[in-house]
Amino acid sequence: MSLATPEASARTGYAINPLDRLSERRDDPAHVAGLMEHPSTRFVVVGRDKPILRLTGAGYEALFTREEAHGLGALRETVLLGRDSERAYFAQLLADEALVVREQPDEGALVDTNQLVVPGRPDLIVHDLRAVAVEGLLAPERIGLLGQAKSVLYWHARHRFCSACGVRSEVSSAGWRRDCPACRAMHFPRTDPVVIMLAVRGDSCLMGRQPRFNKGMYSALAGFLEPGETIEGAVRREIREESAIQVGRVAYHASQPWPFPASIMIGCIAEAVSHEIEIDRAELEDCRWFSRAEVKAMFEGRHPDGLLAPNPIAIAHRLVRDWADGAAPQF
Known about the structure:
The chain is of the alpha+beta class. It folds into two domains: 8-158, Nucleoside Triphosphate Pyrophosphohydrolase; 192-324, Alpha-Beta Complex (Nucleoside Triphosphate Pyrophosphohydrolase), CATH 3.90.79.10. Strand 1 (42-47) and strand 2 form a beta hairpin. The model has no long low-confidence stretch (mean pLDDT 94). The two termini are 32 Å apart. It has helices at 29-37, 66-70, 129-134, 140-158, 231-243, 292-299, 315-324, and strands spanning 42-47, 50-56, 59-61, 75-83, 88-94, 100-102, 115-117, 124-126, 170-172, 177-179, 186-187, 192-201, 204-209, 221-224, 247-258, 263-272, 286-291. The longest helix has 19 residues, at 140-158.
């Protein structure tokens, strides 16, 4: 399906994934086996939550033939991702022991500088999926496919036992279910809903920053949707908890699959009906109002205090930019 005017969600990172997921064929073992064995089929491989990429003369490649994928080492789970007009795609989880840590000591580094590597394969890199997107190493369609693979394989890696009786579960439905052989419970991959919202009042919007953010970067507020809560209720609660700002109307704007580890970001614009901020220091380092002119200066890299807007891969970027450009709900 193509849209004359792409919806806002399609302009967020990890969102472009045009595969037919073949959900109606997942319980047909013969069909799934035929797809897996077809010479045109390609595999993406994930090791310890990170995709494995191949260096080529033209850049980076995320797709492997079946033989290439199996040659990387012991594999755990296999999941049918879907197919496009050319071929089918599977995701495979590489056993942890197939990777080794290459130590790169740096006493002055603020982050871990060690690297995961596939032994004997200097043509391969084990790369963080955020970095793949930020650095633009692959086409958006490939990044979306890797996001799908990472999320479902993460679930498999951490849900190997039945939560009802504790017996080791078995993979079924082409990787989209785990069945308990003892109590017959069926377990499905989960997606955790997160509300992310831009509170607006007149010509200003509310943004905050956490200590882990890049220096000078401010972003929309966000938090997990809790059981028994509407999206609107979660938006109002999270804004109130983190900033003490009261919210009236709430309007949905866009969503984004966020594979860190497996969330769906629900982006909203919220009408602020109060102005005085009280920062929850357990959650935020700072929180403040920004004028529309300030926001545009942040996007253009000319804010007088050197402040920055959210990175383009994040839905927060879409919320803030669309509001600043008048393309999001305006209260």
